[in-house]
Amino acid sequence: MSSRRSSRGSAAISEEEINELISKLQSLLPSARGRRGGSGSQAASTTKLLKETCSYIKSLHREVDDLSDRLSDLMAGMDHNSPGAEIIRSLLR
C-alpha cells in the first residue's frame, strides 16, 4: 500500500474510489452478484460484503485442498510412466 500512496501522493482514497472497489468486489462473489444496494446503511452492507468475501475465500481454500488431496490419491495409484500420469503432469505445468 505504501507504493500505491507514493505513486498517488499523499491524497487519501476517495469515497468514490472505495465505492468502485466495493462494486468490483461484489461482482466477484457468487453470492453477491446481481445484488445492488438495498436497505440498511452502506457501512452495514460493506461489512456484510467483506464477511461474504472472507467466507468465499475460505471455501475456495477448502476446495483447493480437497482437489489437491484427490489428485494426490489419483497419482499414488497410478504408474508414474503411464500416459495418464504424463497428462496430469502436463496440466500442472
Short description:
By secondary structure, this protein is mostly helical. It contains four helices and no strands.
Summary tags:
mainly alpha, 0% strand
Global mean pLDDT:
82
What's the gyration radius in Å?
21 Å
End-to-end separation? 31 Å
Contiguous runs where pLDDT drops below 50 for at least 5 residues: none
Tell how many strands the DSSP assignment holds: 0
Considering DSSP H and I runs of 4 or more, what fraction of the residues is helical? Answer: over 70%
SSE class: mainly alpha
Shape by Cα distribution: elongated
Instruction: Output the number of helix runs.
Output: 4
Can you give a write-up of this model?
It is a single chain. The protein is mainly alpha-helical and 93 residues long. It contains four helices and no strands. The longest helix is centred in the middle third of the chain and has 35 residues. The two termini are 31 Å apart.
Q: What is the secondary structure topology, with strand pairs?
A:
Blueprint (H helix, E strand, L loop, with lengths): L1 H7 L6 H14 L13 H35 L6 H10 L1
